């Protein structure tokens, strides 16, 4: 007889981890211009973030959306059930693509350091629509009780088709679990 251990059981449905590509496919954003802007990465100019549509019922069916579709966010579509993944100053971040205030796509937002008397405490993103800001790690907004959903990120060794580990790391993401 075998028993499933609830602590090791892989999460399924909307809480499943999904692969968002090798770490080396993300430019390391060191500036404070729009996240989705193209930057040099592996001798190519690529968008500063990747955006995925992630079905609530099954995250493993996540699909990448072309970032260029968001250059003109007024032109249609919405950012619901989408996550944007990017690297800011060496740290991988995954957050809801839609601004919690009024759903503007945050790939148009600008990242910044949250500082106090010259000491960097955290990092944030500023939404250009109404200039509200959100902490990229806690999701806390600078106005009202609006909170940005922050997703979990893991870096895992890449494996070849034969299952062998390589030196490269892959970026995996999932919706944050609610506890209790
Ligand atoms: S939509 Fe982002 S601050 Fe209003």
How would you concisely characterize the structure shown here?
Its cofactor is [2Fe-2S] cluster. It comes from Dothidotthia symphoricarpi CBS 119687. This protein has 180 residues and is mainly β.
CATH class: Mainly Beta
Low-confidence stretches: 1-9
Question: Count of DSSP E strands?
Answer: 13
Helix proportion of residues, in percent?
A: under 10%
Strand content: 35-45%
- Span from first to last CA? 30 Å
Shape: globular
H/E element order: EEEEEEEEEEEEE
For CATH, the homologous superfamily is named as: Rieske [2Fe-2S] iron-sulphur domain
Mean pLDDT: 87
* Distinct small-molecule ligands in the complex: FE2/S2 (inorganic) cluster
Q: How many distinct domains?
A: 1
Annotated CATH topology: Rieske Iron-sulfur Protein
Supply the number of helical segments.
0
- Structural category is mainly beta
Largest sheet: 5 strands, mixed
Over the alpha carbons, how many angstroms does the gyration radius reach? 17 Å
Pfam families: Rieske
GO molecular function, one term: metal ion binding
Domain Rieske: 62-162
Protein name: Rieske domain-containing protein
